[in-house]
Amino acid sequence: MDKLVIEGGIPLQGEVAVSGSKNAALPALAACLLTSDRVILNRIPQVRDIGTMLGLVRHIGAEVSVKGDRVTIRAANLEHPEAPYELVKTMRASSLVLGPLVGRCGRARVSLPGGCAIGARPINLHVSGLERLGAEVRQEHGYIEANASNGLQGANVQFDRISVTGTEDLLMAAVLARGETVIGNAAREPEVADLAALLTAMGAKIEGAGTSTIRVQGVAKLGGAEHTIIPDRIETGTFLIGGALTAGDLTVRGCVPEHLRALIAKLQQAGVEVTEPSPDTLRVRVPGRLKNVDITTEEHPGFATDLQAQFMALMTQAAGISFVTETIFENRFMHAQELARMGANIRLEGRQAIVAGPTPLSGAQVIASDLRASASLVLAGLAARGETVIDRVYHIDRGYEKIESKLAGVGARIRRIE
Ligand code: EPZ
Questions:
Q1: How do the domains of the chain map onto residue ranges?
Q2: Which atom in ligand 1 lies closest to the alpha carbon of residue 189?
Q3: pLDDT tens, 195-242?
Q4: I need a surface site. Which of 146, 256, 289, 374 has the fewest CB within 10 A?
Q5: What is the pTM of this model?
């Protein structure tokens, strides 16, 4: 198992480029199943989860070709409209093929994801949404079997709770349903709007994507398209926080500042100077001492849960007490114990972590548990005195493209050992 070895205490300086968004690319790859024509996707990040999704669409029957960050998919014959357990257990987002398969083939057999490190991760909202569109869904042997032999019928679907991939799954089912579908309490993440842009390029009729109400007029067929995936706002935020935590001077290029307003505001409250030198760059510097700031994770446009762990690492260096409240997932504080082993002072009370700082961080051997917790350990290692060794680095590779070369490019002393 790979490890990352980091020699901390060096400020990140210079410019780093972000890759395409993993969480926009995953639904986009699933959307290719909705047409037998060729779809070209650009700026696809080369990360493990994308590899898993490409394996899944190939298993279903699509032809896939990859050249650098360009992926071409042609889902002419879908012999196996299913997502087997071996694939789904490694990536919950495999459930994103449920909607496209029911919409295109009238049936789907998808393994239940099972829990993961950060929580139970059920897909009940995906299932009830499909049932509203007329699918018959039953659960057997750990699989969801969905059938809509005479197609799907548009309907009003109100999500009990906001779900990003639940909204995306349903959107991909609705585009080929008969009549109109209105999705209420829809997720407003930029990745939902990016998926809608791709579907629209394929011929879908969608209004309101990116707001909490999405209106879809079903069409009989979708065609091919070419689409460039939006930049990864979580990778962007991770680097910005890293620049602040190492008291460096870091510019992140190729990003969308508009996607990060909540983080930018919190960084500024914490005394970080955040500027926008050009429409697609953000720059961070820390003129003085870091101040304690409270964050509560919320659905977009609130503070992203995927940046909570990274921000917690930053707050270990801020003077005073910071309250970090996680409202989206039930178990997303795994990084706290590992940060504590590096010297952080963090107390967990249910959905809240109480961080008292600043406490000097010293390098240690730590273990990654989930994608974003691992990112926070990398950032802490960059700021810590001495050497940090992070085990189970495959978690990081799920969502960060070439992380050690990107960080080394802005001064970090970081290397991967087999
Ligand atoms: C997406 O996961 C992201 N993944 C996650 O990013 C992100 O943390 C999450 O949204 C929240 O922003 C992708 O887009 C591939 P949800 P998703 O459905 O869609 C509960 C990362 O690090 N829920 O919005 O699975 C659920 O348990 C990953 O890149 C149900 O109860 O999240 C959670 O508590 C981690 N029933 C809450 O809703 C359902 O049917 C929000 O989950 C679905 C969800």
A1: 3-19+231-417, 22-228
A2: 12
A3: 999 999 999 999 999 999 999 999 999 999 999 999 999 999 999 999
A4: 289
A5: 0.98
- H helical segments located in 111-205: 124-132, 164-174, 190-201
Residue 265 has pLDDT above 70, yes or no: yes
| Start-end of H helices in 133-189 | 164-174
What pLDDT, in 10s, does the model give residues 159-188? 999 999 999 999 999 999 999 999 999 999
> Tens digit of pLDDT for each residue in 363-401?
999 998 889 999 999 999 999 999 999 999 999 999 999
Of the pLDDT bands very low, low, confident and very high (cuts 50, 70, 90), residue 115 is: low
Q: Which atom of ligand 1 is nearest to the CA of 165?
A: 19
32 is catalytic: no
CA distance 61 to 71: 16
CATH topology of domain 22-228: UDP-n-acetylglucosamine1-carboxyvinyl-transferase; Chain (3.65.10)
CA distance 224 to 216: 19
Interval between CA 26 and ligand 1 midpoint (Å): 13
Who lines ligand 1 at CB under 6 A? 23, 26, 92-93, 119-126, 161, 163-166, 191, 305-306, 328-329, 371-372, 399
Architecture of domain 3-19+231-417: Alpha-beta prism (3.65)
User: What is the 8-class DSSP label of residue 50?
Assistant: H
